[in-house]
Amino acid sequence: MKTDKKNIFHWAAGILLCCLGIALFTKANFGLSMIAAGPYLLHVLLRDAFPWFSQGTAEYVWEALLLLVLALLMRQFKIRWLLSFGTAVITGLIIDLYFSLMGGNGVFATMAERLLAYAGGTVSCAIGVACYFRTNLPLQVYELVVMEQAERTGKSTDKVKWAFDITMLCICVAMAAVVLLLRGFWTGISWGTAVTTFVNAPLIAVAGKIIDRMEKKNGRRE
Asked: Which of 41, 49, 90, 191 could bridge 175 with an S-S bond, Cβ 3.0-4.6 Å?
């Protein structure tokens, strides 16, 4: 029962913190991660034609497209994959909720606010991912794609994750170029993307150790 409660807590905390990080990154406008940039750029490309197409909606539409690509690569569709898509829908709704509480997904007015948002987003996402690593409940489609491809190819998860991240980065750079061509401005990918990519793994490791220590202390008290 304790294990089940921990799984649910880590899963919920992972979603809430990662969604908060995405919202803060967006409002900082120093560049999103290669994972979060895709849905954001899709939103930017389609929001004028479809006003209802929020950034949160773009999140689960993007993950649905990834799920379709996975099915084509695997030449099959597993029913359990729908659980990950369910997580994507929840994630999208929470992202939109954060934006509604923050007055929309427009950029913060002052540089100080933007820098604080970027720092807060970096820390929030790192803790959120660390929580994700400590649950066996359905995760995002991103992680699902990596795990399924690693199992199919027999390669390590780290190698598949690296290839996946590079692929996503290339796709997002191409999408940002399309936005520049059609809208006249560059967005989504910037220096913040590179910094986050560099510091993300160490921060996740530190956050994980802190979480484990706290839970170990709480376990002793119980």
From this structure: 41
